[in-house]
Amino acid sequence: MNDLDTQNVSMNVLPGPPKVLLSSTTFLLKRLGFAAKDRSHAAFEGMGLSAFHYAVLALLDEDPRETQAMIADALGYDRSHIVRLLDELEERELVLRKRDPEDRRRHVVKLTPEGRSMLGRLRTIMRQLEDEFLAPLDAEQRETLHALLATLASHHDPRCAPRDPAPPSQA
Q: Which of 72, 113, 149, 171 gives 79 a disulfide partner, CB atoms 3.0 to 4.6 angstroms apart?
């Protein structure tokens, strides 16, 4: 093999992390988390929103009477970050904030009809992202992976523990 052949072979092989890291489940989870985050940000950017906005809209769809503090706590976001996200969602008329009649110091946040419509479009993007990201896995492997991740998530973050399904909408 001459120098040119060696150079072509090395150009086709990407340098990667050491074997000790590749044997670490937490390292792989971290790498996959970064990749999933990057892809979701890129996909939502076309809508002028982020995965953070999507999470807020999804939460409001499940429990329509939420205060800013409750949203921050449920999602594990800094409260000042929530204010900025809600400002952006309110500017686009996707949410509405009103003073809480029971406590004038708080704001109650509600999803608008435009917000519900946008949430539907964002859910479609999420399904596509998930299908693309999990493409190497068959349906059974996806279910197993989800169950394992749900177990780990609920162990390490009680907010991720399984809950009763939301009651049907009275609309």
A: 72
